[in-house]
Amino acid sequence: MAFAQTMFPRSRSARYIAAACTAIFVVSTLYYLELPGPQHTGGFGLDEHLPHWSAPIPTGYPQDETSPLVWETRAAQVKDAFRHAYRGYLQHANGFDELRPLSKVGVNNFNGWNVTMYDSLDTMLLMGLWDEFEAALPVVAQGDFRLLRSTPNANAWSRSGYAPFFETVIRYLGGLLSAYALSGEKLLLDRASELATLLEPAFNTTKGLPRFGVNPGTGAVTPSQSGILAEIASCQLEWTYAAHATANKTHYDRVNTLINTLADAMEERKGGMFPTNWHLSAGKPVSESRSVGAAADSAHEYLLKQYLLTGKQDIENLEMYMLTTNEVLTRLLYLSPNRELLYVSDTTGSKFTAAHRLEHLACFFPGLLALGAHTVDLNAAFAALDPTKLSAEARRQYTLLSQYDLRALHMAAAEGLATSCWLMYADQPSGLGPEVADMAHTVRDGSSKDTKGILWMDAVEGWRNKGRTGPLPGTDEKKPIPYTLSEKERTPQAPWDYVVRRADYFLRPETIESIYIMWRTTGNPVWRERGWGIFQALEREAKTPTGYASLKKVTQSPAPQSDDQPSYFLAETLKYLYLLFSNEDLVPLDKWVFNTEAHPLPVFTWSEWEKHKFGISN
């Protein structure tokens, strides 16, 4: 295993999507204007082997759900949902960051620069909403990134006088770069480079790890030396593509320094996952807590995606991804006792104690595993690791996994995890998933005794030792637990295998993201149907006259709503749904890489001149 100087040879294959509106799509959209809204069937749908809440297809449409017209019609419905959400934003919150869909006012949660508009630019392009995109360009051109604007009803950091680095990067910078890549509008690249430059004082720490916040008008930064993994290690894609698209060496140097710091930390730790808490100037972790959810999620994501974005030449990031997933597979994946739901846990304390909870934020992870299995020769990448340079624990993980086909194992984990994340939706009367579930179950006799899950790899080892017969543990067919329309609220009882700990739903995209990637990597239509059920639930439970609202309790139907329409609902949730239902593969996974806000960036390789200019070693 070599932790050498970062190596990024790549040659740009810039491909701009011209998402033309075909005749059949126009016809489907026109038909949709007459379609009835989704209906709650309260149980299973058309196929007993395909759990969903599918509303009847309107009379006159093909009943065959493999029909391209059916799926284009469904894509048109998502497009209409985007129009509804964006129209409400423009009508009631134009000039502000986000819409409060119940009180019909705007709020500045993210710098006061119209974050919903910036976050939506590439969604408009992919959906062919040319008029909306064109109308947004003058606003982008006139925006003042040096001026922070808050509102009394904003979150705490918006009143602090600093732009939150992580959120600004993934929403604004990522949105501008992606919209430029899709449209070729130079204005967007110019504004992106300007914003990147204004944010770069955040990198002025000893090891180049960014601080939490920066004032883009003065260059002042937040003083704290503490950082969390997701916020310090989720800007590589944006700065790398900005460097490539602008030929700006400063942009490149920032990301190169950050990656070298991460690689040095991994070399010192000799493998495994990165913990969640870091000291910025030291460039080292200061805890042993692990997570693929809050505080860590996108950092793991960017290890693989940096490798893919740079034409599969950045070997250091691939190595760090492999070592990370080795530990997740062997130490953080569990099976629940009754239903054998596969879930990924975080840890508590310093002794690697599993918390046995599944966060909605962690439901991006099955999609990441499937993406890696689809785009990378995982067996070759695993074989390239040098076990003599690993810690005793990392060597144990390596030895255990060396007995398996890594691609098949990653895909099995992706299948099981994605199914569990979907079931968190399908089990609820609202059809939408909770923020946090405790993965313990009440035993079948109704007592209060809780039982924890078992390590997935222990179960897989048992399966292997018994001759590898039948599906891998956690990957067998599963169905939601039935409920009746008379139930006002779902209460924890056997045999759920979990307890809803936080019942709110913030219009989050992670489960839909994984469902989309599972569809694109497997071609299994069950994933599309599951996504369709979730979209119907959104229409039924979250839609308001002015947009879409977060929910307070997914365990009820109708679910009580919250006065919140986050920008990522338009940037991610609706985008992934549209891509899931679209018959055309608008964003091929081997040619584009999504940042953590679902902004696609094109895969490229460095030119010889770029390698010379930036000092990139071959």
From TrEMBL:
<dbReference type="GO" id="GO:0016020">
    <property type="term" value="C:membrane"/>
</dbReference>
<dbReference type="InterPro" id="IPR012341">
    <property type="entry name" value="6hp_glycosidase-like_sf"/>
</dbReference>
<dbReference type="GO" id="GO:0005975">
    <property type="term" value="P:carbohydrate metabolic process"/>
</dbReference>
<dbReference type="InterPro" id="IPR036026">
    <property type="entry name" value="Seven-hairpin_glycosidases"/>
</dbReference>
<feature type="disulfide bond">
    <location>
        <begin position="363"/>
        <end position="421"/>
    </location>
</feature>
<protein>
    <recommendedName>
        <fullName>alpha-1,2-Mannosidase</fullName>
        <ecNumber>3.2.1.-</ecNumber>
    </recommendedName>
</protein>
<feature type="active site" description="Proton donor">
    <location>
        <position position="167"/>
    </location>
</feature>
<feature type="transmembrane region" description="Helical">
    <location>
        <begin position="16"/>
        <end position="33"/>
    </location>
</feature>
<dbReference type="GO" id="GO:0004571">
    <property type="term" value="F:mannosyl-oligosaccharide 1,2-alpha-mannosidase activity"/>
</dbReference>
<keyword id="KW-0472">Membrane</keyword>
<dbReference type="InterPro" id="IPR050749">
    <property type="entry name" value="Glycosyl_Hydrolase_47"/>
</dbReference>
<comment type="pathway">
    <text>Protein modification; protein glycosylation.</text>
</comment>
<dbReference type="InterPro" id="IPR001382">
    <property type="entry name" value="Glyco_hydro_47"/>
</dbReference>
<feature type="active site">
    <location>
        <position position="297"/>
    </location>
</feature>
<feature type="active site">
    <location>
        <position position="510"/>
    </location>
</feature>
<feature type="active site" description="Proton donor">
    <location>
        <position position="435"/>
    </location>
</feature>
<dbReference type="GO" id="GO:0005509">
    <property type="term" value="F:calcium ion binding"/>
</dbReference>
<keyword id="KW-0326">Glycosidase</keyword>
<keyword id="KW-0479">Metal-binding</keyword>
<keyword id="KW-0106">Calcium</keyword>
<keyword id="KW-0812">Transmembrane</keyword>
<keyword id="KW-1133">Transmembrane helix</keyword>
<dbReference type="GO" id="GO:0005783">
    <property type="term" value="C:endoplasmic reticulum"/>
</dbReference>
<keyword id="KW-0378">Hydrolase</keyword>
<comment type="similarity">
    <text>Belongs to the glycosyl hydrolase 47 family.</text>
</comment>
<feature type="binding site">
    <location>
        <position position="596"/>
    </location>
    <ligand>
        <name>Ca(2+)</name>
    </ligand>
</feature>
<dbReference type="Pfam" id="PF01532">
    <property type="entry name" value="Glyco_hydro_47"/>
</dbReference>
<dbReference type="GO" id="GO:0036503">
    <property type="term" value="P:ERAD pathway"/>
</dbReference>
<keyword id="KW-1015">Disulfide bond</keyword>
